[in-house]
Specification:
Blueprint (H helix, E strand, L loop, with lengths): L1 E2 L1 H8 L7 H8 L5 E3 L1 H10 L3 H9 L4 H11 E3 L16 H10 L3 E2 L3 H4 L2 H5 L5 E2 L3
Parallel strand pairs: 1-4, 2-3, 4-5
């Protein structure tokens, strides 16, 4: 599966109840989470946003804690070639590209991705907001 940054935050920072099944599945290694270094870099950048830093502090977490979870669960792959489908949000394109190459589940809450669900399904990519 490919997991976008907002879902990663929901799982490892916000402890969103809607992501508990995903957190458990990742811990049990029920899914192979594929990602790229660019996705990890984006997560690292987002973890430095003031609102995220405050949330981390509230939960007695650090950015390193979240990145350690990422590193423990995500298998880094090469950056995927641009898919034939183009996302309206260029920041989300890397998630789509990787999901298309691996023909895998893409977890995202981003409207720019969700609105592409039918088109992505024709490329063997299922898009969901949660497990």
């Amino acid at each position: 599966m490919v997991i976008d940054t907002n879902i990663v935050l929901d799982v490892f920072v916000f402890n969103d109840p809607a992501t508990l099944a995903l957190k458990d599945a990742l811990a049990a290694k029920k899914y192979q989470w594929v990602a790229t270094q660019a996705m990890r870099d984006e997560l690292e950048r987002v973890l430095a946003y003031p609102k995220i830093v405050a949330r981390l502090a509230r939960h007695a977490l650090s950015a390193l804690d979240v990145l350690t979870h990422f590193d423990a669960h995500a298998e880094l792959k090469e950056v995927a070639a641009k898919a034939v489908l183009t996302c309206a949000d260029p920041d989300d394109q890397k998630f789509i590209d990787l999901a298309v190459v691996h023909q895998t589940l893409l977890l995202s809450k981003d409207q720019a991705v969700l609105c592409m669900a039918k088109r992505l399904l024709t490329h063997t990519v299922q898009v969901r907001a949660a497990l």
